[in-house]
Amino acid sequence: xxxxxxxxxxxxxxxxxxxxxxxxxxxxxxxxxxxxxxxxxxxxxxxxxxxxxxxxxxxxxxxxxxxxxxxxxxxxxxxxxxxxxxxxxxxxxxxxxxxxxxxxxxxxxxxxxxxxxxxxxxxxxx
Amino acid sequence: xxxxxxxxxxxxxxxxxxxxxxxxxxxxxxxxxxxxxxxxxxxxxxxxxxxxxxxxxxxxxxxxxxxxxxxxxxxxxxxxxxxxxxxxxxxxxxxxxxxxxxxxxxxxxxxxxxxxxxxxxxxxxxxxxxxxxxxxxxxxxxxxxxxxxxxxxxxxxxxxxxxxxxxxxxxxxxxxxxxxxxxxxxxxxxxxxxxxxxxxxxxxxxxxxxxxxxxxxxxxxxxxxxxxxxxxxxxxxxxxxxxxxxxxxxxxxxxxxxxxxxxxxxxxxxxxxxxxxxxxxxxxxxxxxxxxxxxxxxxxxxxxxxxxxxxxxxxxxxxxxxxxxxxxxxxxxxxxxxxxxxxxxxxxxxxxxxxxxxxxxxxxxxxxxxxxxxxxxxxxxxxxxxxxxxxxxxxxxxxxxxxxxxxxxxxxxxxxxxxxxxxxxxxxxxxxxxxxxxxxxxxxxxxxxxxxxxxxxxxxxxxxxxxxxxxxxxxxxxxxx
Amino acid sequence: xxxxxxxxxxxxxxxxxxxxxxxxxxxxxxxxxxxxxxxxxxxxxxxxxxxxxxxxxxxxxxxxxxxxxxxxxxxxxxxxxxxxxxxxxxxxxxxxxxxxxxxxxxxxxxxxxxxxxxxxxxxxxxxxxxxxxxxxxxxxxxxxxxxxxxxxxxxxxxxxxxxxxxxxxxxxxxxxxxxxxxxxxxxxxxxxxxxxxxxxxxxxxxxxxxxxxxxxxxxxxxxxxxxxxxxxxxxxxxxxxxxxxxxxxxxxxxxxxxxxxxxxxxxxxxxxxxxxxxxxxxxxxxxxxxxxxxxxxxxxxxxxxxxxxxxxxxxxxxxxxxxxxxxxxxxxxxxxxxxxxxxxxxxxxxxxxxxxxxxxxxxxxxxxxxxxxxxxxxxxxxxxxxxxxxxxxxxxxxxxxxxxxxxxxxxxxxxxxxxxxxxxxxxxxxxxxxxxxxxxxxxx
Lengths: 126, 481, 444
Hints:
Chain A is of the alpha+beta class. Chain A is built from three helices and nine strands, in the order βββαβββββαβα. Chain A has a six-stranded antiparallel beta sheet with strand order 1-2-3-9-8-5. In chain A, strands 4-6-7 form a three-stranded antiparallel beta sheet.
């Protein structure tokens, strides 16, 4: 259920790291908690991200939540399709619902693997 | 039902003044005039009357429906108060009159209304002074927190935080934030504020704490004396959110209990109409040491009985309103206080608390009441016990709409899951309470055999459940988008 | 007891079900130390007696005299149907439309109000209103701060001083810098405003007509603002907006207004109406409630409160604002007013206001010693004259003779102690203008 080839932040973002490029999004757990997304607010290409700090936000009908950068680096690409179709995040959070591509400057040591992230979700979901 | 714009017919005459002799184009340079017409509709008076009469029939109101909305105090709005607020001697007064030397004598009646209302509110709450300027409850909260900030700044205290219980209304932390403070959340214990929990977060940087009593669960904050003592030890001020004042009039005065600053909601406790979402009024009362920080201006009375506005307030937080607040709303509350008087206000509180407890006992077999002890003017129930029927608080609310009731407050306070908050108020008869309880019990019974009765509700209104996701995604906020 | 329907038998039955011995026992948790030290309110009065008392207080106010007061708040004719329709109990005794199925009347009315105000300002998005025009201006400033991440606000000194003091008070705790650009004889200094825009500026805030009544075209200023990444905020007067170049046409980002001139009595300061409209880029920053159109499961059109994720009841301290209520009933009155007047009625009203003011300016400046403060600058329905004496003196004299001649600009602007701000509306007759001119001539 939780893809094994990704890394995770406690704040429910995922990162797919391939060399010095990371693709970032939010997890299945996160999109379930939020409900149908109505808006995604992302940084622009060229923006600098610092791991653990706020980088944007997501809104649903009943909630709004900050997005936190799971990695540090520079944004190279933003998923433009999300502007008109935020529901892609709900439908396919690890695929078509990807949010950013980042050229890495640093990967924090405390990113979680799939098993550790599964524990985080279990703890929160009671 | 079509929008009023779709009913526009060119050539229909509305309520028009005479034509000017010179057009604006003759008097003003062309470059300052609009090129594109505002395209306001062309409607006859009857067109407008038919349209809005039709719209009114698609609305519930207290006059037609019982509104047991917790935290809103939807009591009956007496009609004589509307008569008072419509008196031309009040409605025609221009607000700058007191600012013209000598013209203060043209509005002595209005200044007296403000002065007397402040005095009455002081006596009701046990506070030293009141300002009527805040134009809504949340505005009163912001004003109150700004006063707290001004006090500390004046004393040279370094204060950065405001403590807010997790049961508080969302406007509390929002107001504290806008006034420039960091918000510290305080978990409740057994539904109320616990001194041990408070001790964990209380330090010298705490400017104050925002509370209400009874709290949003309808429970009396019995640790109040200890809380007051603890806050005073670090020179932190205690703020009272007056949304629940209907529970304590004549039984407790928040000033006497140690609160330094309070805001009231005239559209709740003092029966001014809600208007579909405003206008309200949120007067703020303060203890003696906070008087200098009240907003500019202050109504004062001279020895000869003349009223005037004092603009010389050097330590004031400044101006929170263009003038003196929602005077037209204050008029209604003043008239209501005069009508009820000492015994009437006390009686209103007694009846409100009696009705809430009665409704609680009628419902505590069919819904979970997490704090099932004597409540005050409202109580919270949980629909968690209905989860096996796959029915939620939302579904119960919608089924109640079909029976002609407005639903209770749902999903607030956040600390109770599937919350339903009931506040019947003192103006509902026992018949209404019994009928409501019977209907609700019937609805919950139906949930066991026919949950679709609830999950498919409402069925008898102009629309059923609306697609809120689509509304947020499309952002169609006008007829032209 | 008025409004409490419980009979002694009702009370007895309720106590039995609750299992409490008395009503007083329900308050046992309130210990003796917390009881009121006093509760010395007067005894209640009958409805008749309260009305008599209030009528006597109303009679202590003098409100029937001829008045040339404006200063942002105007005495316009309100069609009788505005009262009749807004006083329908389904509108005024309704609650906030959180249960939309039972509130389609309120919700559609707010949707139509949002439509009407966007047509007036020429900007495509509106909220359901805030408390008043000053709050609207503050909220617009905050929108700009959040949108740009910058902390400086450039404000024209000819913007209403009543709103500028509110702006000062609200921003004092927020570490924002307010830069005020001086007016030139009651006219906005567009060059100085443009020059003041820099990389730290979040918003430039102007007003049209400004507090002195003069009119400007801010198109060039707004273009410069756009180029500098600065948000353009303009405050307008709804009645004159029906004929004046719109904020949309000038390229503004946010247009706010006081809605009192649309169907709301002066009522000694409130309740009023804070109108807010903006461009698409800023709509998510807009505070307060908004109504959106959508559909139900059966394909019927319906209206709901939307974009609530930004609001206090969800985001709490991270909300765009702490505002909970709008001024729903006031917004309804404004909508009714606009519908009853319609395009023709509102433009006629604006035309009459301008015509009367220009006539008044002509008559008053014919008096020796009386001049227009702003010279030949174009103005709408309000203008400032300089007198050979202190304006307060003149106001005092004329007021005691039944005429309020205008607002003393010296109250807010140093050096303008001899200046008087005069406003006319469609209710100002040419006869009263003539009488005013004669009284002024005789009292200088």
